[in-house]
Design brief:
This protein is mainly α. 49% of the residues lie in helices and 0% in strands. One of its GO terms (cellular component) is DNA-directed RNA polymerase complex.
Length: 89
């Protein structure tokens, strides 16, 4: 169950629960990839390309989990659905 941010506040930013789930899921995958790649870059001696990663958008998160972090970014208005996007990922 989501306690923070509240679902009501999140639905002010996104038009439906389905859209919210899809947006949070996609952003959570991006956050996980960024964290994994950052760990690899810090713990390997050879150069590691992070140019395609999408960095964290907030200075501080209440949640340590990627889905919670994604929801916090959505609530802050930093992540939204691009209506012109044709991305099918």
């Amino acid at each position: 169950m989501i306690l923070f941010p509240s679902v009501d506040k999140l639905l002010e930013k996104v038009d439906s629960r389905y859209s919210l789930i899809m947006l949070a899921s996609k952003r959570a995958h991006e956050i996980d990839k960024y964290r994994e790649d950052k760990f690899r870059a810090e713990h390997t001696e050879k150069p590691f390309d992070m140019s395609e990663d999408k960095p964290l958008l907030l200075d501080h998160y209440e949640s340590n989990k990627a889905v919670g972090m994604a929801l916090e970014e959505i609530e802050a208005g930093l992540v939204s659905i691009d209506p012109d996007s044709t991305d099918n990922e």
